[in-house]
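Lab notebook: predicted structure, single chain.

Context: the supervisor wants predicted structures on file for every construct in the current expression panel, including those that have not yet been purified. This is the next one on the list. No modifications to the sequence; it matches the entry in the shared construct table.
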Amino acid sequence: MCSLFRKKKDTTAAIIAQMQAEEQRRIERENAAKAEAERLRVEQERAAQEAKTDAANRAAANRSAAMSAARTRAMKSLESRGVNPYDYMDTIDERLNYNASLLPATTEDFTGQFGDSFVDAVTSSIRDKSRNQATRWFDTNIAPNYEETLFSSTMDDPYVDSILGRQKQEALDTVTRARSRGQLDELGFTGAVNRIGELEKSGRSTAQSLSDAVLANKRSDLRKLIDQGKSAAGSLELGQTFNPQDWSGRIQSKAKELGSSIEGDVYGALSGQQFFDIGDVITKGGQAQGVSNPTPAFLDAQASREQLRQKQRGAGQGGTF
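Prediction complete. Output recorded below exactly as produced.
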């Protein structure tokens, strides 16, 4: 009985041991499978990363080669137009980097970004920078109202004053002589002088308008030269140069030329203008002293009769003595 029990116990232990061994082997197989799966996963990831890196390296190499080729084409294009490309390498590289930034890192075809359109963009950018720089020189050194300041509206006043002053004095001398000859009495003389004052105001307005036209023409001539320079600056092409000193000299020379002739041009514009009509002045003076139709001839005759009466009066007084 005890022997049979022990035998049965041993059999049970063996079965348990066998089952435990099988479970252990199963666990080991699962662990091995997991390890293999992990190894395969890592290997696949590594392979994918290597492929990605290789693609990125190829793209970077292609990008670098495309940029280098584009840089060379741009430089040759500038050289063909008489421009030293090394003066504009910053502009070329700036445009290269900008175009490159527009594409994904994995791009391998750069024809669209670094083809003929890229070269055209570089040359246009350099041309526009040259134009802007030249135009800024005008905006900085030549004020927008330069000609207005140079030929101010008051610089012709001395010449207008001179002409009006001379004619006014001639008119005053004439009415003074008319008073001395007896054409005008004190009332007539005062009336004539007042009329001279009125004619001076209207004459100044007319003279100023004519003189202002002279200044306006000079401003226009100078502005035309300035605008010509700005137009040249704003239309520079590659290979062309802009010389600020040359334009500065031309503008200053033109301004000096125009300024030197102001006096003569004002006198020329006012030549032939009689701002004080002596007949009108004498007539107004005669009206002031009570003559209804005081023409100069009538006043002369009146003066002659008055002088004759004075002589006769003097002769009669002498006979009495």
